[in-house]
Amino acid sequence: MSVDNGQKIRTGQLITVKGGIFKQMWQKPHAAEADFVLSAEATDSASITTVSTMDEAMDFARNVTVTPGGTTADVKAGVVTVVGTDIHDNVISEEITIIANQSTTSTGSYAFKTVTSVSFIAQDDDGATYDVGIGDKLGLEKKLQLNTIGGNAGVATGTTVSNHTREGTAPTVTVDTQSLEKNTVNFNTALAATKTFLVYMITEDPSDPVQSEI
Fold first, then answer.
1. What is the distance between the alpha carbons of residues 135 and 191, in angstroms, rounded to a whole number?
2. Of 172, 167, 169, residue with least CA distance to 198
3. Segment 15-48, tens digit of pLDDT
4. Which CATH number fits domain 33-139: 1.10.8, 3.30.1450, 3.30.420, 2.60.120?
5. Domain spans in the chain, listed from the N-terminal domain onward
6. Of 19, 76, 143, 146, which shows the fewest CB atoms inside 10 Å?
7. In this model, does residue 182 exceed pLDDT 80?
């Protein structure tokens, strides 16, 4: 197709994409909670502490948080390693960075459907404890090339919360074409077990490797 705009000829190509609108819903997601997965987990200074029994199972694929506690002067700089599965049951792991003597929360980016183990490096002394919780980032079922989720009340596609009332503020969407667990949505409205959350996203043809987003 060629277009003459009076200055130059511009030539473009029309590409047919066998795509569609994909709907994903989260019914009654648990609110973010700092100690949902592990609460005040003890560590020591002699060896790595690995925990494989969690306090609660994940309700949806979502990110995890890590908060040092106890005697925070004993917290050593390093990483907390979280192992589990993504929304499609593939094994994933994430290293969440902790600084020396930290007392604030570190927020993970990956969406875990399950958490099977959490490992803490040997600490500076035995008084450091850790909470591991769940955050507000929910895992998407598609690997997106760009943010195709509608953002506000003025668009035909978008996000809805609580009895299908459209949000007026766009959610924060993170996309990644290689790693499914890095594709997340963070709604403007806080997650709560009294609400239903919904997104519509434009997806491409999964049967074509060039266009595939799953």
1. 9
2. 167
3. 555 667 888 999 999 999 999 999 999 999 999 9
4. 2.60.120
5. 14-29+140-203, 33-139
6. 146
7. yes
